[in-house]
Amino acid sequence: MPSQPSKTLETFDNPMPERDYTIRIEVPEFTCLCPKTGQPDFATLYLEYVPEAKCVELKSLKMYVWAYRDEGAFHEKVTNTILDDLVKATEPRFMRLTAKFNVRGGIYTSVVAEHRQSGWQAPEAVTLP
């Protein structure tokens, strides 16, 4: 049976929960529909997160993103909804979702939404010469 879109996000145990490290995922084929015109909106999603106990499983993320293909959504709302769903599933220390939408009517839109676990502090950045 072929795969089907699904709003279920699966997770797996973080293999290194004692360490802060960043996972970066790029999703270049996000599609939803403009709620005003019904025309498709295309975006690349950039997900960055520091996991706590769980990581998002990539096939389920692919099926989750696919589930938006036929839904009408404003850019701002869909970006924040996706972030909320990912935070609910993984409970990360930190998560940032950037949605860069393709040009529409001569306008590009980027939406950035973030979640920070209460009390979590980002480690100091290391700059090498």
UniProtKB/TrEMBL annotation:
**Pathways involved:** tRNA modification; tRNA-queuosine biosynthesis
The parts of the chain that form a coiled coil are none
Where does this polypeptide localize?
Cytoplasm
Which InterPro entries does the protein's record reference? GTP-CH-I_C/QueF, NADPH_dep_7-cyano-7-deazaG_red, QueF, QueF_type1
* Active site, UniProt feature: 34, 41
User: Is the Oxidoreductase keyword given for this protein?
Assistant: yes
Enzyme Commission number(s) = 1.7.1.13
Record carries keyword Oxidoreductase: yes
Residues annotated as binding substrate: 56-58, 75-76
Q: Which UniProt keywords apply?
A: Cytoplasm, NADP, Oxidoreductase, Queuosine biosynthesis
Protein name per Swiss-Prot or TrEMBL: NADPH-dependent 7-cyano-7-deazaguanine reductase
What family name appears in the similarity comment? Belongs to the GTP cyclohydrolase I family. QueF type 1 subfamily.
Could you tell me one molecular function GO term of this UniProt entry?
preQ1 synthase activity
Q: Which reaction does it catalyse?
A: 7-aminomethyl-7-carbaguanine + 2 NADP(+) = 7-cyano-7-carbaguanine + 2 NADPH + 3 H(+)
Q: Spell out the GO cellular component terms annotated for this protein, sorted alphabetically and separated by semicolons.
A: cytoplasm
What's this protein's function?
Catalyzes the NADPH-dependent reduction of 7-cyano-7-deazaguanine (preQ0) to 7-aminomethyl-7-deazaguanine (preQ1).
